[in-house]
Amino acid sequence: MNSIQLAWKIRRHGIEMTHLSGGSHIGAILSVADIIAVLYSDILLYRPQEPEWEGRDRMILCKGHAGAAIYAALAESGFFPVEELKTHYQNASRLSGHVSHHLPGVDFSTGALGHGLSAATGMAYSFKKSGRKERVYAVLGDGECNEGEVWEGALFANHFRLDNMVAIIDHNHMQAMDFCDNTLEWGDFAAKWRSFGWHAIEINGNDHAQLHAAFAEAAEVKHKPTVIIAHTIKGCGVSFMQNDLLWHYRFPHAGWEYECAVHELHKNKPTNVEDPYTPEGFPCPALPNSEEQDDSDHTTSLTWKPSYPEPMRRTGHGYIPQ
Amino acid sequence: MRDTFVRTLVDLAKQDSNVELITGDLGFGVLKPYWETVPDQFTNAGIAEQHMTSMAAGMALTGKTVFTYSIGNFPTLRCLEQVRNDCAYHHANVKIVCVGGGFVYGSLGMSHHATEDLAIMRALPEVVVMAPGDAVEAAAATRAIANLQGTCYLRLGRGGEKTIHKELPNFTIGKALPIGEEYETAVDVTIFSTGAILDIACETVALLRQHGLKVAQYSFPTVKPLDTDTICKCAKQSRLLVSIEEHNIVGGFGSAVAEALSDMGKSPRLLRCGISDEYCIRVGNQQFLRDVYGLNAPSIVEKVLAHLA
């Protein structure tokens, strides 16, 4: 399966898993799907039948809340049956909302933000010390980079010249409550990493050609760790989820939300990919009804409508541009 | 005790190139013998305990046996979630070493008093918690945890503690160590202690014996897993049990003993000696602060006699 096909599968599984489970974070699952797909299709060395194989590359999804993307990639890569994906969030399942290493193919459990990069540096440092060739990949969120530990790890990785590790930041520009720049302004994000000594590559992280080129470039970098700042779109692939913070929380409910999401994915389905859930898609999906009220939506209220984009509010109080 | 730990670790590291020591930028002088002997197995992670701990887990998961080293609360409370999620949950071979359990860094102030660490570390599933009582226990504990797969916490004093044991050839994690005679018949009081307050426990025993009491004594270098067999045996033959720790009275060693007793049904009264659930606002060295908080032999003897009266 090529990376485009795998990315589509991750998106389709992500929609299904959150739809069935009522789980959150579909926006993040869709934004990171292309990064994960390229990693598992073409970059990482692994043996699905031998998940503990010592010579495997290590992969840490630091932003553990996008766990469904990893589960889909692992299942499609042969680590466990695709059928198991439907158990996501369910009682007695192995697929918790945030990734756990009690599942074959997961090298490190995450869910508390900020730990993953440091764990990855520990692995990369250990490989360097022992003269081992395995490489380490860590996928972070941009909001996650608010955590101080990320920058502790960034200092360390540069100090010990860990050129056997690559951090990829799923820079979808949104975090739990708002845009990143409305929360804690990043300014020139790449410059921050460069000032920490990292080789920084900025790309469109939903573009597979750019992702492949970035990983190829990272493989050639010596004496520096590499960070790929992958500008992505939260909710990428489903128009009504894109750049809307609502979909950090909301799951695709039965009816128009689920049907339109599947329908949109089918419009861009690569060749030779089967949809295991709705093989024909929804040629005539249900459509949203403006009269419709859904009481199960906990993310909106009379005073709080998380519909974006909205203007920068950080300096808004007392300052009115003339 | 601190230097004994370092000497023991140097031996272990020389024998096994997978042993690694990471410091959070502390141990100047103390760790010198280590980094001079095995420089390739030493790392200063900087003043970054959270990173140090996550990184140690990452190293451990690729086959290393990693000791993280700092003082007071820095290797534990500062990075508690990293210990929990990254080390303990992964059953990672990380050995967390704290120098300065209790009031060791007395005059440095409250920030440097490790007085809740045993309770907090003990609450983490699968973490072995050790607080050796003297240098001999410390050497044995260091060797024992190095050979145990999984996450361990080792709480050390600083140095200058009185050496109580001559040797401990049969040291086992989870086994209490009798100090002096082990009784098979009824005794008045049994004293349990953990950590470097062992010397105070010994003084207490000596004073109680001067009062004509029959007293048994055990040192508990392992707080978790707790030696419940010894506690049960002593509970059956003692009029009063006493636990002594340089630690808050809530959740630590005495609480662990109380938990063990609660599983027994009928048991004698347990007198728990420790810091009575307050932060230290006094300035002074370890001995001074122990006195202030009643952690000296005369104060404990007074409480024991009152209970027996």
Describe the protein in words.
- Chain A has 322 residues and is α/β, with parallel strands linked by helices.
- Chain A contains 10 helices and 5 strands.
- In chain A, strands 1-2-3-5-4 form a 5-stranded parallel beta sheet, sandwiched between helices.
- In chain A, helix 5 (148-159) links the parallel strand 2 (136-141) and strand 3 (165-171).
- In chain A, helix 1 (3-21) crosses helix 3 and helix 2 packs parallel to helix 3 (67-76).
- Chain A starts with a helix and ends in a 55-residue tail after the last helix.
- The relative contact order of chain A is 0.14.
- Chain B has 309 residues and is of the alpha/beta class.
- Chain B folds into 2 domains: 2-156, 3-Layer(aba) Sandwich (Rossmann fold), CATH 3.40.50; 177-308, Rossmann fold (3-Layer(aba) Sandwich).
- Chain B is globular and about 60 Å long.
- In chain B, 55% of the residues are buried.
- Classes of the chains: A alpha/beta (322), B alpha/beta (309).
- Chain A binds chain B through residues 58, 101, 107-112, 114-116, 118-127, 129-130, 132, 148-149, 152-153, 155-156, 159, and chain B through 20, 40, 43, 45-46, 48, 50-51, 53-64, 81-82, 85-86, 89-90.
